[in-house]
Amino acid sequence: MLCAAAILFITTGARQTLGLFVMPITQDTGMSIVSISFALAVGQFVWGAVQPLFGAIADNHGSRPVVALGLVLLFVGMALASIAQTQWMMLVSLGVIAAAGAGAAGFSILIGATSANLPPERRSFAAGFINAGSSLGQFAYAPLAQGLISAFGWATAMLTLAATAIAGLPLLGKLGNASSSSSNAGVTGPGLREQLRIAMRDRSYLLIHASYFTCGVHIAFLVTHLPGEVALCGLPAGVSATAIALIGLFNVAGSLGAGWLGNRVRMRNILFFMYAGRAVAIALFLVSPRTPMVFYVFAAVLGVSWLSTTPPTAGLVGKLFGTRYLATLFGLTLLSHQTGAFFGAWLGGVTMSRFGDYGWMWIADMVLAAVAALLCLPIREARVVRGPVMARA
Fold this sequence. Notes:
By secondary structure, this protein is mainly alpha-helical. The chain is built from 17 helices and no strands. The chain has helices at residues 2-15, 22-29, 33-61, 64-81, 87-104, 107-115, 120-152, 154-166, 180-183, 192-200, 203-232, 237-261, 267-286, 292-305, 310-321, 326-355, 359-376. It starts with a helix and ends in a 17-residue tail after the last helix.
């Protein structure tokens, strides 16, 4: 669990602070905000698209080689981005190579590597604990990235963050490496293809995908364009870095809390209140003055549910179908999330380019958060048994 959290600390910290680079890259290279937003949007999609593929490899051949490849690709992609001077090079480096690397060392592969070695009553907490590593990464990397950009420029900052990916390689020795064929030896049940067919006909699984899609729109829009919103308000770039760091800091408590609650209340109810809370927070933000304190409070409130949706979402998938193919099944769920993230990152740039502000995107973001909350209510989930072991759906 510690090694998985530490690896996610690195990959998420590097990936979730890329929004801080948008304006510096635009000013230095002349690339438009739409083109950079598109590259980051493609990266959001690729990050999700590769996870079910790498998840299937990890399920059958072990997680360590997959995560190792991911860390190397993350380094290569971000290193190439530091010398990119054209839209296409930025698209290939950040949108494809680095994003694929972050996906190969992403949450679905890491939770799959640990869940098979834990009793059912500990899996929800483990998901929250590992996910808290990503939140700490965002908290630590945001001020680091902004400081490096201010002191040395965006290219040096990008190369420095790339180098941190290599630091994750020594952690692989303690990471779980069981594949489904070894950790489930003697366990009868459907094969991967049959399990996928069963899952894609399950209404609850499809509702999980739909709600997580809207979550992706929300997350990617904010992490990519919150710095742009701060700049529009005439505030210094340090406000952006502090806000992003606060999101990560408060999400540590949110992730741990979601993991703890997952063993005590229905996970669909946790998700309902998280998404509904986001909609309310955005509504209040839209009618508030744009001061640094408002941005900080908004970031703190959002941070509680920021990536905290991941543990209960993964937990629901595990309750519905077990852990044998969790890396693959939750990887597909993350693909839905990142498809939404593509639109969140890209349409934010399009909205800014066309209207000169993000007003319409904020409204759409608020509505989608409310929709995600409602989609969680019909998900099939058994009542939680008050005891050491949770009931299976």
